[in-house]
Amino acid sequence: MYKILRKEVLAPRINLMEIDAPFVARKGQPGQFIILRMREYSERIPLTIADFDREKGTVTIVFQEVGKSTEELATLNAGDVIADFVGPLGIPSDHGRKEDKKVVCVSGGVGTAVIFPELRKIKENGNYTITIQGSRSKELLFWSDRLEKYSDEFYITTDDGSFGRKGFVTDQLKDILAEKSDDIAYVLAIGPIPMMKFVCALTEQYSVKTYVSLNTIMVDGTGMCGSCRITVGNETKFACVDGPEFDGHLVDWKEMEDRNSRFIPQERESLERYRKLMGK
Q: What pLDDT digit, counting tens, does each position of 154-190 carry?
């Protein structure tokens, strides 16, 4: 059993939990993920590691309430326990190496929590970092101070213009690429699928290497079930063991979108049943 040591509401329906998981904390690296189950027969939930403290033996996860399982997970508080917390899984990111050029990190929504440990590693290795944080509105922004701390240049965009630049992350990224694309080693984009897809479409025009983190539908997290298979560069890959990071210009985004949306009716039905059971 894994104890929740701290819980924090970062934004509406976006929660942080700090978990006592010393073995995972000891080995976890930026870019890797865990799979948790609340109880023995609960659904498996894959979440990228948002932070870790090896001395304390803790792992931080951030999740958005989007379905039955994440909405139920949000009912837990500090002192409660989680049945299973398996990891670290996936291949660690290789973005901590020293580059001769600038590195651009683009986060959207909850992708902020995923990109943070990678940005920190990139900066601590001596790179010049440019960060763009995007959100639908000001109230959904979180960890902006953390991102800015490790950024030489920092920009915020909101869809509704309630904070920072009004528009999408691609609007800000386009300006940066137009000015200094030759100085950029690569772009790391993490967020909703449409955001990553459009970032890749833009960077491809400037021939700038782009990496994305794909959190697909997963079951076992070991490559056995095949649920998370995707096509990258005309090859079949499994996000759980070959990723979760891939060259964004090689990802079959249509297949990715179709795969992640194929259980939407069942997910809605499950959430409706749960809310009815809970009297919501």
A: 999 999 999 999 999 999 999 999 998 999 999 999 9
DSSP 63-122: EE--SHHHHHHTT--TT-EESEEEEEESPPP-TTS--SSEEEEEEETTHHHHHHHHHHHH
Token pair of 156 as six digits = 């915020």
The domains located in the chain, with CATH, are 2-89 (2.40.30.10), 93-212 (3.40.50.80)
Query: Parallel, antiparallel, or unpaired for β 14-20 and 33-37?
Result: unpaired
Q: How does pLDDT run across 63-94, given as a tens digit for each residue?
A: 999 889 999 999 999 999 999 999 999 999 98
pTM of the full structure: 0.92
Q: Give the Cα separation of 176 and 208 in Å (integer).
A: 12
Which helix (H) or strand (E) is 20 found in, with range? strand 14-20
Instruction: Report which DSSP code applies to 234.
Output: T
Question: Distance from CA of residue 162 to its chain's centroid?
Answer: 23
Please calculate the CA angle 196-205-134 and round it to the nearest 5 degrees.
30
CA–CA dist 97, 185 (Å, integer): 11
CB contact at 8 A, 2 and 81: yes
Alpha-carbon gap, residue 94 to 233, rounded angstroms: 19
Contact 228, 216 (CB under 8 A): yes
What is the C-alpha to C-alpha distance for residues 148 and 27, in angstroms, rounded to an integer? 26
